[in-house]
Design a protein that fits this description.
Elements: H1 3-26, H2 38-57, H3 63-77, E1 81-86, E2 90-95, H4 101-107, H5 109-114, E3 118-121, E4 133-141, E5 144-153, H6 158-214, H7 219-236, E6 243-245, H8 246-264, E7 268-274, E8 282-284, H9 289-300, E9 307-316, E10 319-326, H10 333-340, H11 352-363, E11 370-373, E12 379-386
Parallel strand pairs: 7-9
Antiparallel strand pairs: 1-2, 1-5, 3-4, 4-5, 6-8, 9-10, 10-12, 11-12
Helix pairs in contact: 1-2, 1-6, 2-3, 6-7, 6-8, 7-8
């Protein structure tokens, strides 16, 4: 289902459900509590109920999420009972008539297999049972049935059949969004792994070669560099959380630069200007180090004289503004655009597209990298990091909200 259809369904559902809800409630007048006309009151109530039922479903269809959303969905439909089922069994029953659970479970096989809704009478020996009819509406994501929504009522109702179908489609949209969240999580995790694989081989080889060169001539220096190397690789390959703090990322960069300086000596000069108030800001793990590595590579590439790298992190109100500049060879802007588009380059662009993609996925397209460069003019990379973003904090995992 396309994003347009998903948005359309989300937009249409409250209107359909509001009409159904209003039809039931106008037969039984009640106080509007100062919320305006009956139509406005019904709309407000429907939107509020839908907003309460949606968040659990964004985590997928499980027994826990079904339990948390079932009451809101039943209220949305105004039915006496409602249950949610996955492909195997009924996950939750909300309302009266729970003794029909086994009967419902047996009748789900057909709708789950065909993906078509079904309505049928319920058989019950209790004369006081208020539910006599059930409507099954399949829950589908990408044309595959994930489960079913079942609404139970005292009698057959064409309005309930239509309303249950619309609510089921709305639930399906939430489940599709959950799938997209899960896909996004797996994508970002894969990109972090790819970035580690991209950076590690040449950096590890060069670092160990530099450390080995000091083993006999300066054992104490070799020991210090080995500790820096161990701490940096431990940080780079850590397993807890997909976000870190700016302070931790800058500390890892300092360790990386210590190893680079040991290799290039006086050819590399680095200036850091960091505002203390931005150090606690959370950001995607291993996000700035690839930018610094890119600056080192392109700053020293093709130059015999000294390269200067400047790293600044400033407080910019609701954001932290991080800028990484080098005075190296620079790059053709057209080549840079291809790199950011994922085209790659045989000699550069270490991690640039990876970092740009992750920043956009976490914060939105407005927070992609801003790069300024030209041949012979060096490169300036700017990253804008919001100080607060839902779900982004040090040690957090990339899981759907």
């Amino acid at each position: 289902m396309s994003g347009f259809l998903a948005g359309l369904l989300v937009a249409i559902l409250p209107l359909l459900a509001a009409g159904f809800w209003l039809g039931r409630r106008t037969a039984r007048p009640r106080s509007l509590g100062g919320l305006g006309t009956p139509v406005e009151h019904a709309t407000f109530q429907t939107l509020h109920t839908a907003s309460l039922a949606a968040p659990p479903l964004r985590a997928g269809l499980t027994e826990e999420t079904a339990r948390k959303s079932a009451r809101g969905l039943r209220s949305l439909l105004g039915t006496d009972a409602l249950c949610l089922a996955d492909e195997k069994d009924v996950l939750v029953w909300d309302g009266v008539g729970a003794h029909h659970r086994a009967e419902i479970a047996e009748r789900l096989a057909g709708p789950l297999e065909t993906g078509r809704g079904e309505a049928f009478p319920l058989h019950c020996g209790s004369p006081d049972c208020p539910v006599r009819w059930a409507v099954v509406a399949p829950l589908t994501v990408d044309d595959r049935v994930h489960g079913a929504l079942v609404a139970c009522a005292p009698r057959e109702s064409a309005v309930l059949v239509r309303a249950a179908g619309e609510v089921a489609r709305w639930v399906s949209v939430q489940l599709e969004l959950a799938d997209l969240d899960d896909s996004r999580t797996r994508l970002i995790e894969a990109e972090i792994k790819a970035l580690r694989a991209q950076i590690s081989p040449h950096f590890i080889f060069n670092s160990l070669a530099v450390i080995a060169s000091f083993v006999r001539t300066d054992p104490e220096r070799a020991r210090e560099l080995l500790l820096e190397f161990a701490d940096f690789t431990r940080y780079s390959f850590r397993r807890h959380g997909d976000f870190t703090t700016l302070a931790d990322e800058l500390h890892a960069i300092d360790q990386y630069l210590a190893l680079v300086r040991a290799r290039f000596g006086d050819r590399l000069a680095v200036t850091l200007q960091i505002a203390p108030e931005v150090l606690p800001v959370a950001l995607p793990f291993l996000c700035l180090q690839p930018l610094v590595e890119n600056a080192v590579k392109h700053g020293l590439e093709g130059k015999a004289d000294k390269c200067h790298i400047r790293i600044t992190a400033q407080d910019a109100g609701a954001e932290a503004l991080v800028v990484i500049e080098d005075d190296g060879a620079g790059m053709d802007p057209e080549l840079l655009r291809r790199i950011l588009a994922g085209g790659g380059s045989p000699s550069g662009g270490i991690g640039l597209s990876n970092v740009d993609d992750r920043l956009r996925q976490v914060y939105g397209d407005d927070h992609g990298l801003v790069l300024e460069t030209a041949p012979g003019a060096g490169m300036k990379i700017t990253a804008r990091l919001p100080k607060y973003q839902p779900g982004v904090h040090s040690g957090a995992r990339l899981t759907p909200e």
